[in-house]
Structures are given as C-alpha cells and as structure tokens.
C-alpha cells in the first residue's frame, strides 16, 4: 500500500461526522426491522441483516455498536438500547463454554459499559457496576477453561475442538486479562487456582509462535508476517502438526481478516501490558521477554499487511486467493470491490487499521518514533479510504454501515449480486462494529479525549474511581 504521510487525524473529521450520522441510522434500522427470534444477525443479504448458523459470536457486536454510538455522540437513545439489550440478552454468552469468542461478545458489551462508567460518562451505581464486573470476571474464567496444554504452554481452543488454535482468539485474551485485573480467582479440580494472566500470556505466545511466520524457514511459504488462520495440534501429546485455514484459501496463504485480528490483538495487549507492574510479569518470564515476542508478532503482521495490500489500504480476502493473478498488477493500484475474480474484505481493513494505529502509538510512546509514525500513517491511510464511498454505506435502506465485507469465501456464504461474479456490496456485524470502534479511537485523539482502550480505568480500585 502507499502510505499517505501528509494525513493528520483531524483531516478525517468530516468523514467521521458523516460516519456517525449514517451509523445511528443503521442501528435504528436494524432495531426496527430485524427479527431477533431468528438469532444473532451476522451479515447482510441484499442489504438486510440475516443470521448464519456456525457459532454464536456476533451478538455482542450488535449491542456493542449501540454503546459505541453513544460514546461518540452522547445520544442517550443508543446507551439505553445497548444497556437494556446487554442485560436482557447477553447472559448466555457469559457462560458459553463452546466458543472462543468471549472477547467479541462480552468485552464489546459489558466491557464497554463498565469502561464508560469508570470514565464518568454514565452514572455509576454499585449494582450496575457489580453486574458488569461479575460478567467480565466469569467470562474470562469460562474462556480460559477451553484450554489445550502443549509443550511449553497451551492455548484457548477454537470451537473446532481441542486440537485447534485460531489466530483470531488472541482478541479473546482481553476477557482473561480483564478478569485477572478485576481480581477474579479461577479454580479447577481440587480447588487448584489457575492464573488467568498466565493463560492469557501462554495463549499469546502460542499464537506468536504458531500462527505468525517470520521468514525463519518453518516451511516453503514462510515469509515475514504472514499468518495461518488455524494451527493444528495433536491434542494428546501437545505437538504442533500443521497450519490450516477455515475461512482462508489454505493453511499456506494468508486470510487477511485473520491477519488483521493478529495485528489488532497483539497491539492492544501491548498497550495493556504497559499498564502493569514489572513484578506482576516476573513469574512469567519478565516484561522484556514478553514484550519482545509480542512486538515481533505485531510488527511482522503489520509489515505484511502494508506490503501485500493494494495502494489504498483495502485488502483482498486472501493474499493467496487463486484468481488474484488474473487481476494483473493489483497491488500497485487501488482495490476494486467490483472486479470479476476475487472479493475484497473491508472488515479486514477496519480491524487492521486499528492494529496499525495502536502499534504506531505504542511505538511512539516507547521511543521508536520513526517506525511508530509509519504504522500510524498507514492506519490513517486505510481509514481515509474506508470512510468514504464505495465502502461507506449511504443507502438509507441498507442496514449495513461498511460495504464489501466477506464472511466465508470458501463456503460460498456471501451474497453475489445479479450480474456480478463475486460477492460485494454487503456488510457484516464485525465489520460494522470495528469501523465504529476505530472511528471512536480516532475521534478521541482528534478531540484530545481519554485514549480509547478496552481496559480504560476498568481495573482501578473502587476507592480511586
């Protein structure tokens, strides 16, 4: 991609204002038109949200979007919607033992509400705070219980089973570290206490070691920063067997949304670690060791994104998609969501942009100004494209906010409009949510408001709130 080094955050102010106006309209439209009896909305078909049975991972994005809308606009309608839906609908997600998505469902809802309370943005009542804290404590423990031990550590297994490590699960480490920071004690058989921070760090290390490649000769396709969606292990002896992919083209190509999950996940956890005392990390190898492998994974994945994405910052759905070669010199021109061969994935761009911005800010804060500025400008470049047509949904009847998102290209689940040979023109809950989340992140920077993180003030002692 071509990084625009002249962009400043404030240059996107007009686009952000327009995005939030459209966003509010879309949230109201879904609230009015969508039949919740059908299940959680997942993606749009001809502009209307529909469900898709695979795993329950998107409902938190639906109600979390309303909470983010309030955060950005102070419109209490969205706060009440998000709060009431969280209390009345989200409880089953707290205790869901069959998924790896607690970060998506519960941090997006209970976590955002608790954060707003701690920031003084919404009234602080003891009962409500206790509900949100308890939800986050239990969610982190339940997520940590999906544990597969491997040589030198372990990981949170995906919904596929104990053999399966998904790259996206790094974003559910948020559930574990919040539960840990809130002082929760997770216990197993025989009352054995299980350290949630240790499990989170071991999962991050497994993701860095097996999901991310560094050009160190692991296989023929090992290049700096590429990722595998799934890493497969022998669950009996803990040995790694092979890379694989569920939603990408293959285990030896890079599914770009999986890449983006890693970019964002490592960057946000580096930010969280920076708030912890050195003594807390000493038992797990110490700050220097932990931050070293996380910085390596974050920079490698962000570098890969920059090097393997078209000039405007919008990636195709997989960097090894079989028909990309038919597009010619596609990396040296803007992405084309209406081409005849391979879809783009705007949701990967929204998630990846947040990772680039966060890594850039983290590096600048820790003294690596030049590299940090490069990543930050790359994030701005993506958003300058993403928050405008043809990616921003301006049709008042379309329920989605971010167009040209892809869910599962190999399974053929995404809608292909008449006259097109590829899926395009549709939205997803995760794409819309992460467009809002990165927009809020940038808006707070522009207005010199508190820096937006998933953990902002959540773990402070009650007496200092």
From TrEMBL:
UniProt keyword annotations, A-Z: Hydrolase
Single Gene Ontology MF annotation: chondroitin hydrolase activity
GO BP: polysaccharide catabolic process
Stretch forming the signal peptide: none
Domain of life per record: Bacteria
UniProt keyword annotation of Transferase present: no
Family assignment from sequence similarity: Belongs to the glycosyl hydrolase 88 family.
Protein name as catalogued: Glycosyl hydrolase
Organism: Spirosoma radiotolerans
